[in-house]
Amino acid sequence: MVENAGMTTYAQHLSQLQAQAESALARTGFDALLIASGIEKYAFLDDRPYLFQANPHFKHWLPLSNHPNSWIVVRPGHKPRVVYYQPDDYWHVPPSSPTGEWVDAVELIIISRAEEAAAHLQLPGRLAIIGEADARLAGVEPNNPQDLLNLLHYQRARKNGYELDQMRAASRRAAPAHLAARDAFLAGASEAEIHRAYLVAAGHTDRDLPYGNIVALNEHCAVLHYQYQDVQRPAESRSFLIDAGAQVNGYASDITRTWSQGGDADFDALLAAMEAAQLALVDEVRDGVDYRDIHLSTHRHLAGILQAQGIVKMSVEAMLEQGVTSIFMPHGIGHLLGLQVHDIGGFMADEFGQLAPKPEGHPYLRLTRKLQAGMVVTIEPGLYFIPTLLRQLRAGPAAAVNWPLVEHLSRFGGIRIEDDVVCRAEGGPENMTREAFAAL
To answer: Where would I find the beta strands (DSSP E) of 20-159?
Structure first.
């Protein structure tokens, strides 16, 4: 598609999506594409709704994240039709009247009852309907055709200028919040207090976050997806790991930092070594590079750190061969990022849905594709002292582990450092995270 230089980035984005959708419809034999935003779901035997999560396909077209019961209709040669649900509701605040650049780019239909959408969706021909099963209406039921989804998901990995602008803004929103969280940690705050400091600085509430914040102190830093926030201040705050992002127009940032109170030479040296390794791995993000190779490179870096810091007294080759590094970093080096924190299409070898396998012995890697210009990936190496995995290491073949040092470092839990990185066609990568911090 040739983009008009006079168009805004959103207009270019919408034009690109229209062209991709028309091509996918033609290739799969459908006449129109219907996309449901989704519906609110309620707790069992209760009238309390869960947090609404919009269909990412819906957010791809429109900067609307909190609009259940709305629809998009895409037909070749027509403007997108947006069926916009705006109830006359005095129990809750309804969606505001439609505003923004997208309004003039679509055929807008406003409805006040969810079932009214059906009249604007029942079109002649063969329809591809994307949405969760509960989004069905009379005569309109999601069928989620896999061949069409494969085409759309494969293309979605490469972000255009509009999308990158939203993701840069999400990084700029998260960066000051990370620093506010760091300052709260250094002041001795509890996990719950640190979390609140993050939200205030980000201008978010919990419902605005792209994912639940991981706010971990001391040994909690060893829990990869630590899901709680202790309200009690610890007697001693030694280490702090925060994995937290922000959201702008449906696009996410995903940033992790680890901080130390200082004063422990072993942990501080380990943290500095991980910082250097993370930056080196970011520099490996290049057009045409197999992301799996970056993951394997991570384990080589990790083996070197374990050796240099005196934690494991084995050669790099022996550690990799025996899987020792996977004890200290069981997760993957990262994933695609965009409309979803773990964005779709990470395992696709091609647009037909063939899968690119994970490296043997690395089951938790979330991205196995070759990188292309426009992809946004996370680079998030970690080094943890996880009790259950360390017990496996003790019980396995003898490894030359400095167990007293491991026990000492276990008091700090672990380290993870994560940046959001754009793969570019030429030159080095764009590190959106570091640039957001540098701008403060």
So the answer is: 32-36, 71-74, 81-85, 107-111, 127-130
Residue 350, domain CATH: 3.90.230.10
Pairing of strands 107-111, 81-85: parallel
Q: Does one domain contain both 151 and 208?
A: no
Assigned domain for 287 exists: yes
pLDDT in the model for residue 5: 47
Same domain, residue pair 90 and 173: no
Cα distance between residue 284 and residue 59, in whole Å: 30
* pLDDT exceeds cutoff 60 at 279: yes
Q: Is residue 4 a part of any domain in this protein?
A: no
The structural domain count of the chain equals 2
On average, the pLDDT of the chain sits at 96
Q: Count other Cβ atoms within 10 Å, centred on residue 68.
A: 20
Q: Are residues 208 and 318 in the same domain?
A: yes
How many C-beta atoms lie closer than 10 Å to residue 199's C-beta?
A: 18
pTM of the model: 0.96
Q: What is the 3-state secondary structure (H, E, C) of 333-384?
A: CCCECCCCCCCCCCCECCCCCCECCCCCCCCCCCCCCECCCCEEEEECCEEE
pLDDT at position 7: 77
Reading the block at residue 406, the tokens are: 């491991």
Secondary structure letter of residue 264 according to DSSP: -
Sequence letter at residue 394: R
* Contact present, 73 and 34 (Cβ < 8 Å): yes
Question: For the CA atoms of 70, 74, 77, 81, what is the dihedral angle to 10 degrees?
Answer: 0
Let me know whether 104 and 207 are in one domain: no
Which of the four pLDDT bands, split at 50, 70 and 90, describes residue 398? low
- Of 105, 129, 156, the residue at which a domain comes to its end is 156
207 and 333 in one domain? Answer: yes
- More confident: 4 or 12: 12
**Residue 298: pLDDT band by 50, 70, 90 thresholds?**
very high
C-alpha dihedral sign at 380, 383, 387, 393: positive
Q: Is residue 281 in some structural domain?
A: yes
Residues 334 and 308 in one domain: yes
Q: What is the pLDDT of residues 383-393, one digit of tens each?
A: 999 999 999 99
Query: Is the residue at 152 inside a domain?
Result: yes
- Give the pLDDT confidence of 43-97 residue by residue, as tens digits: 999 999 999 999 999 999 999 999 999 999 999 999 999 999 999 988 888 889 9
Q: Domain span at residue 185?
A: 161-438
Domain boundary among 129, 156, 183: 156
Tens-digit pLDDT profile for residues 348-368: 999 999 999 999 999 999 999
